[in-house]
Write a structure and sequence with these properties.
- The protein contains 15 helices and four strands.
- By secondary structure, the protein is mainly α.
- Strands 2-1-3-4 form a four-stranded parallel sheet, with helices on both faces.
Length: 357
């Protein structure tokens, strides 16, 4: 904009600001809740897609925060600036390190309606566990999972700080920040270090049942019981989109596609445009070559760092977590295969992944 007239400049500037604001408000008509399981490249997704305009989406997604603050959707009061921005339509993307139950409850309490799109990203549970352990304890030179590490962060359970991931093999209940204990309110229960996904998608109303005792409730909340697994399985089926960290390139295309199907009119247009621009290309690397793949540390494989006994022990102790992940992969495959059929675009890696399902 050229400012040739000093007398008109202020008016022109104000008009431009108002126009930009109104355009943004139109673009932010749909709300997005990202149920962010730690170490699934969720922070990179938010940074790349909801904190800038470097993709074909432009400014369609606007995060209500500039960083991922654990549990802020639940703990922040309604007058918190982030919630005020969300209620006023100045941002539309919430990333929650929290349970689906709590995050939805808070969103509805603030805005009066549920979000338009609810989605998550899943990762192989053992890979995610090793990545989280490395984040909290391991040196830059690597991580064996056997207790050889630097001084751990305070949120890492004491037993894991002392013995590494083998502390989980014997079925110990090891929660973040403190050892697991019964809380008078199940809502305040911290997740088991090895069962975060199951914890994320549990229905906590079951744990508040007066007919079950504290031991039964704690076992339920730990994510190890059949009841907690069935509850989490039912919850994960309610999501609009499930992405897979290991298939990030294809997952972003699925996100574009599914959101484009669920929204209408001008709200849908940016996602349809992004799909056509970024996904109707040869997916030898990533639709957008400067995308998540070059920015996230959560896309590499860590399982080869563990010896066989530890790998097998973790698989036994994390049985429900692994089963829930496999169910999530099944849902992902169903959505991806439908997208392939409807769009006519081939995704070779998906065909290989989904043949077993």
């Amino acid at each position: 904009m050229r400012l040739n007239s000093g007398s008109r400049a202020p008016f022109q500037m104000i008009l431009a600001i108002l126009s930009s604001f109104l355009l943004l408000r139109v673009a932010l008509g749909a709300d997005f809740l990202f149920v962010h399981i730690p170490k699934t490249s969720g922070s990179s997704f938010q940074q790349f897609y909801a904190l800038g305009d470097t993709t074909a989406l432009g400014r369609t997604l606007q995060a209500c925060e500039t960083f991922v603050d654990s549990h802020w959707p639940r703990t922040a009061s309604h007058d918190d600036p982030r919630w005020v921005k969300y209620k006023n339509g100045e941002c539309n993307f919430i990333s929650a390190h929290d349970t689906l139950h709590h995050a939805m409850e808070k969103v509805v309490s603030v805005k009066g309606v549920p979000p338009s799109i609810v989605f998550t990203s899943l990762r192989n549970p053992i890979e995610r566990l090793i990545s989280m352990y490395a984040y909290g304890c391991c040196t830059v030179h690597g991580c064996t999972g056997n207790g050889k590490h630097k001084v751990c962060e305070e949120w890492v359970p004491e037993a894991i700080q002392k013995h590494g991931l083998k502390a989980l093999v014997d079925g110990n209940e090891l929660c973040f920040r403190r050892e697991c204990e019964w809380s008078s309110s199940p809502d305040n229960h911290m997740p088991n270090f090895g069962q975060i996904m199951t914890w994320t998608f549990q229905d906590y109303s079951d744990a508040k049942n007066d007919e079950i005792n504290e031991v039964e409730a704690l076992n339920y909340l730990s994510g190890r019981t059949e009841e907690s697994f069935r509850s989490s399985k039912a919850k994960i089926e309610t999501l609009d989109v499930i992405m897979l960290t290991e298939y990030n390139e294809e997952s972003v295309c699925l996100f574009y596609w599914e959101v484009g199907k669920k929204l209408t009119g001008k709200e849908r247009d940016p996602f349809s445009k992004a799909f056509n621009e970024e996904c109707r290309v040869d997916l030898t690397g990533y639709p957008n070559k400067q995308g998540i793949k070059g920015r996230s540390n959560n896309l590499s494989l860590h399982g080869n760092r563990l010896d066989n006994d530890l790998q097998q022990g973790l698989s036994r102790s994390m049985r429900n977590e692994i089963l829930l992940y496999k169910h999530g992969v099944l849902i992902f495959c169903r959505q991806m295969l439908q997208m392939i059929a409807e769009s006519g675009i081939g995704f070779p890696r998906i065909n290989m992944l989904c043949t077993e399902f």
